[in-house]
TrEMBL record:
Gene3D superfamilies: Aldolase class I (3.20.20.70)
InterPro entries: Aldolase_TIM, GltB, Glu_synthdom, YerD
Boundaries of every Glutamate synthase domain copy: 133-448
Alphabetized PANTHER family for the sequence: ARCHAEAL-TYPE GLUTAMATE SYNTHASE [NADPH]
The organism of origin for this protein: Flexivirga alba
Record-stated family: Belongs to the glutamate synthase family.
Highest taxon of source: Bacteria
The name this protein goes by in its record: FMN-binding glutamate synthase family protein
A Pfam family annotated for this UniProt entry: Glu_synthase
Amino acid sequence: MVRWQQATALATAGSLAGLAVRDLVQRKHSVLRNYPVVGHLRYLLEDIRPELQQYFIERNWDGRPYDRDTRSIIYERAKGTMAEQPFGTERDVGRAGYESLVHSTAPLEKPDEPPRVRVGGPDCSKPYDMSLLNVSAMSFGALSANAIRALNKGAQLGGFAHDTGEGGLTPYHLENGGDLVWEVGSGYFGTRTKDGNFDPDIFRDKSGDDRVKCVSLKLSQGAKPGIGGVLPAAKVTAEIAQFRGVPEGEKCVSPARHKVFSTPVELIEFIAKMRDLSGGKPAGFKLCVGSRMDILAICKAIREVGTAPDFIIVDGSEGGTGAAPLEYEDHVGMPLTHGLMVVHNALVGTGLRDNIKLGASGKIAGGADIVKRLIQGADYTNAARAMMMAVGCIQAQECHTGKCPVGVATQNPRRARALDVPDKSERVHRYHQATVEQAAQIMATLGAREPHELSPHMLRHNISPNESRSYAELFTWLQPGELLEAAPEEWAKDWQAASADAFTPQISTYRAGERKKA
């Protein structure tokens, strides 16, 4: 026994001595050259820092991207357990930026069934009744096959829509029969020719499937608006290559911009083409708003072409399950609140709002989030990360590494098998049902039965610790057709500069307005 202990000690000492020598001679890490052996402790602590932060340091209300309170309410609703909190709020309700909903002195009873939103304008022959909350765009490839299966089965159980993401319409989206919004991105995956162009024949065949309820063109996404995406060659498996229509083992690129349009008019014409090819199903597009002029240019194009998208999905810059450069995540694109109100007001001001439904996507997690977005102009909402959490995501933020610890965002078969589809689909169903019911309850508390009965007066924002104002007071809300008659000063310059024939503003007009104002 003593000899064994001595041998173990000698072996350990020898290993540490060898490690020390290696640390001293290597040139990559200065810390290890100055502090051999013990310097590894620094890298160990750095590696487990996110877990230490999340589980032992952060408070219930200040974690990012989702705080612990938000994650807990998603998990509890998904499990069907209590999602209530005793002893009052932990939030600082007096801080600047805090928002509150205005309840009615004569609240209504919660409806037996939550309201639904009919999506489909005058040119749509197959409208779809959308839930107030749906699964936002997440592709197979970004998510595992089992995660896609669970989300779609949950959608089938709960009667809500599941957006496919731009990675193609796959058998995993189709096998459980949930309602689908088929999203097509700039790579035209799943509906492309060999040279990477849009293939209308493939699109017609696939979009005719009864499980596809709407078709959507992705212009940009919140996490990385204005850039495309790259799936490294090593990740382009035979399966992904088949579903996306790309060569196996070769780098798969989503371009930054589309080939099918270059002007606002061409965009609207292509959306109309998608609707026709799908057999009259609702067709629309998704974008993260960059400028008000872009939106006004699209509105002018709609009026010029004479047909409109059936829906527009506004993605906030704070959203995004996809990995992106930090600079884009932190600094590019308009947050959902402002982007949503820009699109809503632009459509109202140009007399187009009645025929176009607005979806809102970006950090939707609870019933209050849904109601706030409805007040800000949306007709319905989509959630991505909250749905991932309902499936079992623990916010490990390893989505881009393939090392997701719970099998949600990975293509590793061993990791993905941990996700049990029957169990997780029930969790998705329960989370959706409880959250939508809570949204309907809050609407009734505010005195509203339907989304259109909500108003900006019902949402207040603290502009300082001592002053609170409603959204009706803080922001300009255009009247129907107001831009066509006499654009208010705040909108006039952008309205004049926007063109149906170009996304780039008429700079000479815009700058002339600047000089005149100065």
